[in-house]
Structures are given as structure tokens and as C-alpha cells.
């Protein structure tokens, strides 16, 4: 299922503080995480979809770079987002 505008607004509100705050690192990481989970479910049933596999790997790399940036700039926000999203590091 594709992200709807309502679900995006909910992610913006929970991670960014308001519905218009879309550029914060936490919001971008949460959006990437949601897309990664959706693509992982898709690939469980479509094992030979290599273009989606490549897209998934690119998304994981983008999220990793954002997490590294957040780790370098503000460690408390980094730990909070890992806790909220349930990511391992």
C-alpha cells in the first residue's frame, strides 16, 4: 500500500512537531523507514523483482546517511529516533 497524504501528515506530526515541518531529519528517516518496511513486504512475495530490490538498497543507504548525520550533530535526537522507530544500531 502506498503512503497516503493522511499517513504522511501523521508521520510529520509525530516526528516533526507539525504537519508542515517536513525537512527535519527525524521526519525523513521515519518516511524512509515506512517505505523500507512496505518494500520489504512486497519483496517477500515477489522475490525476482530486482528493480525493487535495488530501490530498497538505495533507500536503506539514504536512511543510513541521515542517521550518521544525526549521530554526528545531535546524539540525543539520534537515540530518540532509534527508540521511536525500533531500529537497531
Task: Jot down its keywords.
Helix Hairpins; 4 helices; mainly alpha; 89 residues
Brief summary:
This protein has a single domain (5-85), classed as Helix Hairpins (Orthogonal Bundle), CATH 1.10.287.10. Helices cover 76% and strands 0% of the residues.
Helix-strand blueprint:
Blueprint: H1 5-16, H2 25-45, H3 50-73, H4 75-85
Helix pairs in contact: 1-2, 2-3, 2-4, 3-4
Structure description:
With 89 residues, the chain is mostly helical. It has helices at residues 5-16, 25-45, 50-73, 75-85. The radius of gyration is 14 Å and the shape is globular. The two termini are 27 Å apart.
**Strands, total number:** 0
CATH architecture: Orthogonal Bundle
CATH superfamily, by name, is S15/NS1, RNA-binding
The geometry reads as globular
Q: What is the average of the pLDDT values?
A: 92
**What string gives the helices and strands in order?**
HHHH
Percentage of residues in strands? under 5%
CATH topology: Helix Hairpins
Determine the structural class based on helices, strands and strand pairing: mainly alpha
Q: How many domains would you count in the coordinates?
A: 1
Number of contiguous helices:
4
CATH class: Mainly Alpha
Rg of Cα set: 14 Å
State the major sheet. Answer: none
Terminal Cα span: 27 Å
Contiguous runs where pLDDT drops below 50 for at least 5 residues: none
Amount of helix = over 70%
Amino acid at each position: 500500500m502506498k503512503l497516503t497524504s493522511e499517513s504522511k501528515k501523521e508521520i510529520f506530526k509525530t516526528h516533526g512537531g507539525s504537519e508542515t515541518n517536513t525537512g527535519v531529519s527525524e521526519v525523513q528517516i521515519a518516511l524512509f523507514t515506512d517505505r523500507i518496511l512496505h518494500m520489504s513486504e512486497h519483496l517477500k512475495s515477489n522475490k525476482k523483482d530486482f528493480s525493487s530490490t535495488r530501490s530498497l538498497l538505495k533507500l536503506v543507504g539514504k536512511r543510513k546517511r541521515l542517521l550518521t548525520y544525526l549521530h554526528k550533530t545531535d546524539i540525543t535526537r539520534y537515540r530518540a529516533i532509534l527508540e521511536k522507530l525500533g531500529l537497531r544500531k
